[in-house]
Amino acid sequence: MLKVSGLSAHYGRAHILEEVALEVAAGEVVVLLGRNGAGKSTTMKAIMGLVPPSAGRVEFDGAEITGREPFEIARRGLGYVPEERRIFTELTVLENLEVGRRPAPPGATPWTPARLFELFPSLGRMQDRPGGRMSGGEQQMLTIARTLMGNPRLILLDEPSEGLAPVVVERMAEAIVTLKASGLGILLSEQNLHFARGVSDRATIIEKGRIRWSGTIPALLEAEEVREQYLSV
Amino acid sequence: MATLEVEGIQKSFGGVQAVRGVSFAVEPGEMLALIGPNGAGKSTCFNMLNGQLRPDAGRVRLQGRDITGLKPREVWRLGVGRTFQITATFGSMTVRENVQMALLSHHRRLGQLWRPVARMDAAEADALLARLGMAGQAGRPCGILAYGDLKRVELAIALANQPALLLMDEPTAGMAPQERVSLMALTAGIARERGIAVLFTEHDMDVVFSHADRILVLDRGALIAEGAPQAVRNDPRVREVYLGSGATSGH
Amino acid sequence: MASGLTVIFGVSRIVNFAHGSLYMLGAYLAWTLVTSLPRGHLGFWGGVLGAALAVGVIGLVVEMLLLRRIYRAPELFQLLATFGVVLVVQDLALLTWGAQDLLGPRAPGLRGSVEILGLRFPLYELFLIVVGPVVLGLLLLLFHRTRWGTLVRAATQDREMVGALGVNQRMLFTSVFFLGSVLAGLGGALQLPRESVNLHMDLAIITEAFVVVVVGGLGSLSGAALAALLIGELHAFGILVFPKITLVLVFLVMAVVLVVRPHGLRGKPQPAAHGVAAAEPMIGAAPPALKLAGAVALLLAVALPPFLGDYALTVLTEIAICILFAASLHLIMGPGGMASFGHAAYFGLGAYGAALAATWLGVPMLGGLAMAPVLAGIFGVVFGWFCVRLSGVYSAMLTLAFAQIAWSVAFQWVELTGGDNGILGVWPDGWAAPKLAYYYLALALCLGGTLLLRRVVHAPFGYALRAQRDSALRAEAIGIDAFRIRWWGFTLAAIAAGVAGGLFAYGKGSVFPTYLAIPRSVDALLMVLLGGVQTLSGPIVGAIAYAGLQERLMRLLEYWRLVLGAVIILLVLFFPQGLAGAARFFWERRHGDA
């Protein structure tokens, strides 16, 4: 469903992405693994049109979307959940969800606040609380819920476990498995291998803006030298 | 005497109790970890200790002296160093100048209008940087440093006023696993050598269980467990509200 | 009542000088429409509404042609561009409607007045007092009860994220701007029966709007509404009771509010800026080539003048003064990280300090020159106390408001300052009367002052200024009192500007309110931005280039504002990183591929 090939990006004169290639199918979770600053977030931003790509091609559902405006890309059904969460702090939970609302594609069951509160019960208990007065875990759930309100068919999920308590990370993993089962494609970025291996089908390792390794999760668990070299675990 | 004594501190925001009567103490040279779910009140607790927030009730004492409700810069003057979850350094200055600023402030020379900074406290700054393994980077601007190195610069700044207490908010967040271990080993070494009490929050359980002497667990604004790492790890309540089954954290 | 404008301002946080111009255009257009349409209800109210809509369309054009292109530029440059619009519109209005004040007709049906508590209130004032809250209420509903309002509030905080959620944020902001422009036009048009239409309306209303936003609390809609009502009523009643000192009243209210509630009536502390700002460049020792160039320039500045004529000496003296003026502003903008849109206040206060000392106290020139930094410094301490508590554009707004207040006092307090006629006959003592001697005096003081400022930047105080700019959090955590450092930095800059102003007064032999008016503040800003905020030599180069350019323009052209405004707009459009940034870009490109 999502196909990225030869994607490069520059910041000033420095290469920050070099010929990144990856694919994600419907109902599949692909994890982008790498250290801080390896290029995970930049890859997602370049796909989303938030960082202008200098070369390469991004296709979504067979149509090229390279370098389009972020709002056009979002309207085609690609959702983006940023690492920094970027909750609208002055808006309530319900208002945050309202900002994300977009009509569902024909035939799909649209996400509603009520359905999202089933997925993230703790959000349902604080519908009128301003985003700025929520804990990190709650904000992380809200930012995912907000993106789902746009009824995307694939989401880019940037380091959802960062800075969260282990028990919240477990709940996040359950939510990802539920979403995957509903047919949503997910490109996940992570540093936490324990978390990633439980929810993902395939892994891609990025280092200094280049893809270094791609394969299935079982293959990654076999390849100890790959993990040692790029993930230092 | 304990370096830091906290007695029943409380704080609420808009009617919601974020911290409800937390008490503990940190001894000289001790590494004390504060863990708990997001929103449990860790940051609020932390901010009350260094003066960013004023507690609604309770007392905070540093080496026997009441510091409750003092401003951060006053708390710092009394000997509390701090590192931040997201590093905060002066990006337009070199590594050495960053440390010099803390030294100049410590010696109360910031109001000076005439003598160039370049000639003030440079040797002392270099000595500190050498202790942290950053001597080779002293002349580089902080704005272009790698993240792990920035964390070390922050530690050097925090040590400049010879603190009795070091507050570290998620010291290893955003670092690669190996860097985490070396930074915390370095911190523990310095703390023991100088008798500095260290209080830190952390989500990486590898770091917590391998470097903390003692652990406090906070949930919904109250302490639910306190003790040695092994005891805390096996505490059923801690497993329920915080650690979980261990499936996603490797424990 | 310009409440609507303020609310838009508070919500969208699009800081925009051009709103003042739109307000003024609303008044002028309404005058034209109302006086040319048939008399009666239709003529008046139709004219008012027609003017508001026309202004909305003008705003739309400005947004699409200009603002849309510069959203990614630094905030300061955006402000500067809108100021360019102000200058252009001022001259266009001057061209179209002439310089004299225009009187509009009374509103039909609301000509009378009623008596309340022994005071006579014109009906039209009462009408406005009612209309204001009604418009505000409608806006509040719009922002809090509609999807459009929710989107606007979200986009105010994080435009990019709203875009990534599938909202066409560009159209969204255009619509906000249209609404804001209509309201600004309406506000201007409704003033028609109250007061004459003139060319000062734009900056006057902007000052008021800034004060309202700051008093109300940044980003708080209800706060802005409350403050708009408070200030509006203060004006309405103040004009009836103390007509001369309404501005001072407003200032006092602001002072009280900020002392009691530092973040405004309903404001919260500003959240830390999202993300990490690009690191400011380092300040190092000047490279040898630059030192050499400086030495040569200094040598020429000392050796050449005896061979020059009086006119050239006057220009050179002014350039020397400009250098100190620009360098003083640079101290707060560069190392201090604060923007000032009202730095001329201290320049002008210095000039008035010297002139008042000379004419009222009869002190000799050196005494007058000593008074200049004293007066500027005193006001630097007072105004600075308010300005440095805020940050970024809000602080800049406040500096502008204070400058405007200082200007209107100088303009209105005719008994002391001579008002528009200024103070004449401020001449140097005998020994400094020859142009050459005065030039050397100015050169010595200005270069001395500039070098002193440079020394300060390299000393611990200058580093502390940079420290609080780079990371307020870290500065506080190592015992730096950022507020006090900024405050003294601001005062130091005011004192230096005062010296420049005093020298200027004696150089010209007279002092006028224009010395502390906004355009002069913008002169200083342009000098600093032209040269580049990043380097210490920037403001010096900028001052020399700009002073020369402006001198030429003003001599050659009657409508110099139009040209200057256009130049500013073009600069911002094509060099959004400033001339220094553009130079670096080209330099890197030339050397980068090698």
List keywords for this structure.
heterotrimer; B: 251 residues; alpha/beta; six-stranded mixed β-sheet; four-stranded antiparallel β-sheet; 10 strands; 24% strand; C: 594 residues; mainly alpha; ABC transporter involved in vitamin B12 uptake, BtuC; 2 domains; two-stranded antiparallel sheet; 25 helices; 4 strands; 72% helix
List the helices and strands and how they pair.
The complex is a heterotrimer of chains A (233), B (251) and C (594).
Chain A: E1 2-11, E2 14-24, E3 29-33, H1 40-48, E4 55-60, E5 63-64, H2 70-75, E6 78-81, H3 93-100, H4 113-119, H5 121-124, H6 136-148, E7 154-158, H7 166-181, E8 185-190, H8 193-199, E9 202-207, E10 210-216, H9 217-222, H10 224-231
Parallel strand pairs in A: 3-8, 3-9, 6-7, 7-8
Antiparallel strand pairs in A: 1-2, 1-4, 4-5, 9-10
Chain B: E1 4-13, E2 16-26, E3 31-35, H1 42-50, E4 57-62, E5 65-66, H2 72-77, E6 80-83, H3 95-106, H4 122-131, H5 147-159, E7 165-169, H6 177-194, E8 197-201, H7 205-211, E9 214-219, E10 222-227, H8 229-234, H9 236-243
Parallel strand pairs in B: 3-8, 3-9, 6-7, 7-8
Antiparallel strand pairs in B: 1-2, 1-4, 4-5, 9-10
Helix pairs in contact in B: 3-4, 3-5, 5-6
Chain C: H1 3-12, H2 18-36, H3 41-65, H4 75-97, E1 113-116, E2 119-122, H5 123-145, H6 147-157, H7 159-164, H8 169-190, H9 201-216, H10 221-241, H11 246-260, H12 288-303, H13 310-333, H14 344-361, H15 365-387, H16 392-412, H17 414-417, E3 423-424, H18 435-458, H19 460-470, H20 472-477, H21 482-508, E4 510-511, H22 518-531, H23 538-556, H24 560-574, H25 578-592
Helix pairs in contact in C: 1-8, 1-9, 1-10, 2-3, 2-4, 2-8, 2-9, 3-8, 4-24, 5-6, 5-10, 6-8, 9-10, 9-11, 9-16, 10-11, 13-18, 13-21, 13-22, 13-23, 14-15, 14-16, 14-21, 15-16, 15-21, 18-19, 18-21, 19-21, 22-23
